[in-house]
Structure formats: C-alpha cells, structure tokens
Amino acid sequence: xxxQASGGGPVQPGDSLRLSCAASGRTSNHHMGWFRQAPxxxxxxxxxxxxxxxxxxxxxxxxxRFTMSRDNAKNTVYLxxxxxxxxxxxxxxxxxxxxxxxxxxxGTLVTVSS
Length: 114
Description:
0% of the residues lie in helices and 53% in strands.
C-alpha cells in the first residue's frame, strides 16, 4: 500500500491543523497510525487506530489536543491537531500495518512557531 500524507505547514502556537493520509489500498484492512520525528530526535508514536476500530490511542504528549479518525470509504485517515505547541514541530508520518508489515508515507512537515 502507498501512503500520501498532506496538510502540514507553518502555524503559530495555539493554532489548529488537520493532516490527511490517503492510501492506495483499503485502510479498513490495516492498522493505521501517525508518528512524528522532530529534528535531532527519534521517530515517536503520536496516534493509532486498530483495524476494525474507530477508537484511537494517543501519546500522552498529544492526548486531549489531537484527534485521529479514519474514513474507510475514502481510504483516508486524518489527524486533527488543536492547541499546537512549538514542541509539536516535526515531520509527521502516516503508517499502515498489516500482517506485521509496515508501510510508511513520505511525511509532511509541521512547524509551530511564533
């Protein structure tokens, strides 16, 4: 499956942004997730939804501010990011997992700065 993430850009602290990840295959067949990698840091988990579920799990750092959702009819997952902070600055990657295989998108850069 191929993934295309979009929606990143420069924003100010407190702003909102919605990322999208369009998949070439059926997202309903995959566990889906969002990860991010800040400059000089390792890639970290942000949010994820298991196959067959609409309930997302979140990293503590984004709980209550970010919302992940999936639209299986469009084979797309979203990450709604509210109350953005400078520490949310990172390249955000979409992940699809099926049968132990990981598929990564190319990433979209989010920059939170005043």
